[in-house]
Structure prediction request, 259 residues.
Amino acid sequence: MKAQALVDHLAENPVDDEYQHLSTYFSDEEVNSVDVISKDNNSWKMFFDGAMNAKGVGIGAILISPTGQHYPATTRLQFFCTNNTAEYEGYVMGMNMAINQDVEELLIMGDADLIIRQAQGEWETRDVKLIPYRQHVEDLIKRFKSIEFKYNPQFHNELADALATLASMLPYPGNVHIDPLEIQIRERHGYCSVVEIEPDIQPWYHDIKRFLKTKEYPEQASGEQKRTIRRLVNGFFLSGEVLYKRTPDLNLLRCVDTL
Prediction:
């Protein structure tokens, strides 16, 4: 019945020469477009984001090398922030990471349209809270040989968003030590990694101590075992031939073998 009514309406209102197509406007048309990112082997990429919720404010940034190596960072902010200042904090943190890596060519991508447009010079910065950030960013830009900015939709900025959200959700750690976050890729079930204890004449900390001294891994060590050693050494300190374990309150405990 509805289809017949539509047909009758079209038959009674034929299109004449004066008919004009409906002109529609799609807001933020340039924001919702897709940009093709050039694959420059010499250019590094940096993603950034900020997150605010009832538990706090966090920022995240990921620096990606031309070979695909990812360098993530996340920080919890303990001072008052707006959404835009949190985004700028993540932006500045990522740029400082690139400067510390001696990056010369950098492509910066974020889902904060305001920040990206201000960086590109398309929009002015009039908010008194953002003017110091904008001036500081201009100084940082001078440290690079080539720098480019691109708007990145939020669904393409998931890793930076996840890092920022993680930092905002964590309770304030105080003096608690938190090891760097390491994401592993496991191709086998957990029970397949179970190993039996074998007699060993070396002390339990032998591999950690050797890695701190010579950066060498045990012979025939698998990739997962190497990652475990790299993670463990962050909690130890070597002074001469004596190995110490760091405690959460930054004390040092001397490592000894079984008596």
In short: Residues 29-37 have pLDDT under 50 and may be disordered. The longest strand covers residues 44-53.
